[in-house]
Structures are given as C-alpha cells and as structure tokens.
Amino acid sequence: MSLTVLRTADAWYLDTPSGAAKIDTAAETTAELLGDRAAVTAAAGSEDTVPVSSLDLVSPVTAPCRVVAQMTNFTSHVTDAGMDPKTVPLTFFRKASGSISGPFDDVVKPAHVRLLDYEVEIGLVIGREIPVGSEITAPQDCVAGLVVTDDVSARDIQLPQTQFYEAKSYPTFTPVGPALVLLDAGEFGRFADLRLRLSVNGTVRQNAVVGADMIHRPLEALHALARFQRLDPGDLVLTGTPAGTALSAPPKAVEKLAALLPPALKWKLFFKGQAKNSKYLADGDVVEASIATDDGALDLGTQRTVVRCQR
C-alpha cells in the first residue's frame, strides 16, 4: 500500500484518512527520510492529525540532489516536435537542483526570458545507491516513489544554445509535489495507468496516459542511465512529457526553408513567429499539474503555481 509523504519547512507528515500525521523523525533531507522508513510507517497509526489544508507544503524532494531528465520520451511529444518515435534515441540532460521549488510556489520568469514553457512529468525519486555499472532488474528495486513535476523551460534560451542546462535550471523551474508517494512493489504495476494532465488558466493543455504514449519506461531508462551516471537516495529522475507544450515544430516546408538561412537570421525569424504564440506562459498565468490513475487508486496529487515576471 502506498504511503503519501508531505513536507513543510520544518517537518514531515504522512497523509492518512483522518488527516496529516507528523512523522517522528530527525530527517532533514529526502534521503534521510527514506532511510527512516520505520518512522514513516509508524505515523500511519497516529491519531494526532491536522488537516492537510492547514499545512504550508514545500517540495518533498530536498536540494541539493541530482536532477536528471529524459528527452522527448512520449510518442505524442516526439511527433509534435517533428521527429519519428521509432528512431528517437534514449537521451538525458541535467537540471540544477537549485531549480526545485514547492508545489504552490510562484514560477518566476526572469526578465530576459521571453518564451516560458511548461512540461508536466512523472518524477522518479531514487531510494538506494546506484553506482555506475549497476544492473537494474526492476524499477521498484531502486525507485522509492513518485512525484508530480513541471519541467519549466525558457525556450528562447534553450533552442539557440542547443543545450538545456541553463534554460531549465533557473530558480523555480522545477516545481515538485505536493506529495512524495512511496510505492510498494505491486503498485509499480499501475505505472502505465498514470494520466498526466496540465492546464493553464483552467484550459487543459496536456492530457495523456503513460501506457499509450511513453516510449522508454523507467526500467529501460534507469538501466541506460546507470551505465554512466551514479544515482543516490533522494535523487530525482524526470521521465518526459506528452504533447501539448507551447513549443511545437514548424511545418516541414518552413523548416526546410529556414535551414537555408544564416543562423542569426533563422533564429530572429523563428522567435518573431513564436512571439505571436499565446500558449507561452505570461505573468499571472495559473498552471495546474496532476498525475493519477483514472480510478484514483494511485494519486500523486495536484500542484498549482502562478507565473510571476521579474521586472
């Protein structure tokens, strides 16, 4: 049975049918909490609870940690980006853990960023040491639980640089939570049934089920990642996003013509066109992201963030 862990600035809680029970632990980091599983389990029997709504929740994944993300890992997103799902490689990029923020914190758009985008993703929270070269036979052997994440992206920084680190690493560019849902071995079987949904100002932009859309599942991804990247308890692996982001591929004819232009002119024209795209996030936009099975048996919760632009 899953355990839903919540975190405030000074304590950890377990979400129970009667409310949030404080976990009796000295853990300050996610890694330390995962090492104190007995305390988490014991909180399930507590009668001393408070309403979850009374808690000021922060990210259940603490920084510093490693934040690793899969690229273009949903068929719908790959197609929307103008690529072939059959040939897309299994690749990764890194984000700074300083980008992690709470599930209800503002997303701060830096003053120089023009094209701010969203990507709802399932986050895998690592539960044990994975040295380079480790053999991984099942995701439940090394994944402690799942979280809702939003891989916020500054597209006008990302695309010309042809690398992702800066564009996805500004503070508040990785909202996490509201909960860390710790799964037992059997519940990992429901991973394919998880639905990812994201809306902006009440309008649904992304809505897809893992089983029908995800290309490289956690076992394959973690096996590939372990060939070169060490992971430790409390690290976070993002697993890709479905179609519906603000950025999409231009028509093939336009793409072919753009390839003939000098890079400076190509990007100038591209961003001039993208500036007319109303789907990019603007000051005051409300982004809600949720992940759950349709029957509610497995529910990672819903995060709600508001975009605030620096002046």
List the keywords:
311 residues, alpha+beta, Fumarylacetoacetate hydrolase, domain 2, globular
Structure report:
The chain folds into two domains: 1-56; 61-309, Fumarylacetoacetate hydrolase, domain 2, CATH 3.90.850. The chain contains eight helices and 19 strands. It has helices at residues 30-34, 37-42, 75-80, 155-161, 210-213, 218-225, 252-258, 263-274; strands at residues 3-7, 12-16, 19-22, 49-50, 67-70, 92-95, 100-101, 107-109, 116-117, 120-126, 143-150, 153-154, 174-175, 180-182, 194-200, 203-209, 236-238, 286-293, 299-309. The strands form four sheets. It has a ten-stranded mixed β-sheet with strand order 4-3-2-1-14-11-10-17-5-6, covered by helices on one side. It has a five-stranded mixed β-sheet with strand order 8-19-18-15-16. The radius of gyration is 20 Å and the shape is globular.
Low-confidence stretches: 250-258
Please give the order of strands in the largest beta sheet: 4-3-2-1-14-11-10-17-5-6
Radius of gyration: 20 Å
> Based on the structure, what is the oligomeric state of the protein chains?
single chain
Which of globular, elongated, flat, extended, rod-shaped describes the shape?
A: globular
In CATH, the architecture of the largest domain is Alpha-Beta Complex
What's the end-to-end separation, in Å? 47 Å
Total DSSP E strands = 19
Number of helices: 8
Order of helices and strands: EEEHHEEHEEEEEEEHEEEEHHEHHEE
Strand portion:
25-35%
According to CATH, what is the class of the largest domain?
Alpha Beta
User: What would the average pLDDT be, to the nearest integer?
Assistant: 92
Work out the count of structural domains: 2
